[in-house]
Predict the structure.
Amino acid sequence: MGKQINVALIGNPNTGKTSVFNALTGLNQKVGNYPGITVEKKEGVCKLPRGVKAHIIDLPGTYSLNASSLDENVVIELLLNKNDKDFPDVAVVVSDVENLKRNLLLFTQIKDLEIPTILVINMADRMAYKGISLDIDVLEKELNTKIALVSTRKKTGIDDLKNLITNFRDLPTQPCLNAREIDPDYFTRLQSAFPNQLLYKLWLVITQDVNFGNVSRKEVDALDDFKTKSKSDLKRLQQKETIKRYQFINNTLKKGQTIDLAAAKDLRIKLDRILTHKVWGYVVFFMILLLMFQAIYDWSSIPMDFIDGLFASMSEWTKDHLPQGQFTNLIAEGIIPGLGGIVIFIPQIAFLFLFISILEETGYMSRVVFLMDRIMRRFGLSGKSVVPLISGTACAIPAVMATRNIESWKERLITILVTPFTTCSARLPVYLIIISLVIPKGRFLGLGYQAMTLMLLYLIGFGAAIGAAYILNKVLKIKNRSFFVVEMPNYKLPLFKNVALTVIEKTKSFVFGAGKIILAISIILWFLASYGPGDDFNNAEAIVTSQYSKENLDTETLQQHIASYKLEHSFIGLTGRAIEPLIQPLGYDWKIGIAIVSSFAAREVFVGTLATIYSVGSDEEDTIKNRMAGEVNPILGTPLFNFASGISLLLFYAFAMQCMSTLAVVKRETNSWKWPTLQLAAMSSFAYIVALIAFQVLK
Amino acid sequence: MQVTLAQLKRGQSAIITDVSSIHIPLKLLEMGCLPGNMVELVQVAPFSDPLYLNINGSHLAIRKETATHILIEITNG
């Protein structure tokens, strides 16, 4: 087996780079993370002619090598590090035929690194529609490269690209721009200080503050006779560089591209007239949101009920068919319900990402960002915060990562801090069971009280996020220059393959990422609830049997009494007892206390914990519900789950920060423990106070 | 008097004359916002901010604040 060719796919956002990646690799792809950071690393394998294989990396989309975000940094770090095992033998720059001029800027930069480079001109099917004609031979000569004219939609040109990759050794490596032209004096001195290094690489080291090989920014600064320039001087030079590059590109395109504007048709103008309209724009956006929530909470209930039932019967089956013992109990009461708690979210997550990826693929998301920016800015957010806030209704973890393209640090930080207020899908099972217990079934104007309560909880979540943002905006003193540049891409029909792969990928990473934690917690919980210190726990059977000896109970009831006595004296029961004084003012007993404590690992554990605690053998929701309805408040003597304590509990879950995975992601994204700690303390104490007031007023 | 991009009206087009202010992000220049290029105001968001521009065939949106640092010469309208 010969060596694989390392190929790096590079390109502007919205050029169909991922479509090219999907066309080359098909299902032979995997998504991971770059070491130490949460930037997605997509790689795959492609079979080339003559039995050669290529290892393809889909690098994050970027407009240039002058990185302005963590994602973009990955590109430059790989391209400057010859020792990286992924360092490309050949770079494939993907461009969009309609935005060739802008896309070529990045191409000239890559070319100047003297890496063999192929230019893909994608969306070739749009050329006639837009009145564009290209002289490929001239372009290849001017740009000193090989070009593949590709249409991923019509599936043409991919084979040409594969051939070019196979023969990458024939590619010329001359640069497009001589860096010396930018400022002859400065660059000549730079070169003489580092005679063996490529000038453009040195320039990137200075402007981007990245290291390559053995040259670092510090080293350049340290040279006595060579002072790097001030920030504004550097910026002026970068401007000059950009202008030079565009001059080169304009000259090239003058020779190789003609656009017949009379033949060009534009759907964009007509659609934008409606979709960015000051009234219709919002109406359409609102309708799309409604449809999305309908899908997430209504359509997905069918598969969710099915999954729920499936796991319940799996537990049942395990208990019936495996030999009795602790190990079987661990599987039936710990692991299977734990797994069920993860799998049940798949339909919702899949629907959410289906919508988000369609909205992004079509180019509509940019219009939403455009429409919402001014409104969001009043609260210290950016138009780009809309995407995380919507994603947050599924899960805060991808939502926090989706804040990366927000240019202003302050706006980004605020978005990260408030996103966990949005009602994520983990809160849903908690809401559902409490609502069904404490909110009457009646209807008002055709709308059920229960449905309205749920709707209200979502609005409260968004309201809390916006309100918190408003306060943070006033409180946080961060020097901030608010940049905001968003590309408004052409409208496109989404490619089924792209959407499907995104949905599969995101769902998979949720299941394996969040899933691990949920599963671990369920197992730990089961152990804590199944074991306890001292005689009370170990002799539970004898104690309870003698206690009820006069009452002549049937075996089943007696067993339940034993189980709940055991639980009360298990490790988890003792913990619950210990925190009872703290939560009594909110209207909860120690059992709810345990559920809340275990919820700090992940909220969705709540229902499962109560199921375990109320010593219910099966996981059937109805049984849990009836059990919960029968519980009595030890002090007040009223039902434990009444209107007051129910509302208090709902509000507590709406506001409390009860998700370790989110805290971990926030720590990674903000690179400090300060912000997740603030989030945890502020949100949870706010939740406590609100829940306290609610119970004390309503009881 | 110097005219800035923020003063452009919907449907008008202009030539960019100066982008040397340090308040203009490099990213914007890289997307084609450079002296000599044509710019057209395609659409204005509610509350007249941000601005939806067509710069030399690139469609993008920027905030009004940034637009006040870009100098232009109006060619029609």
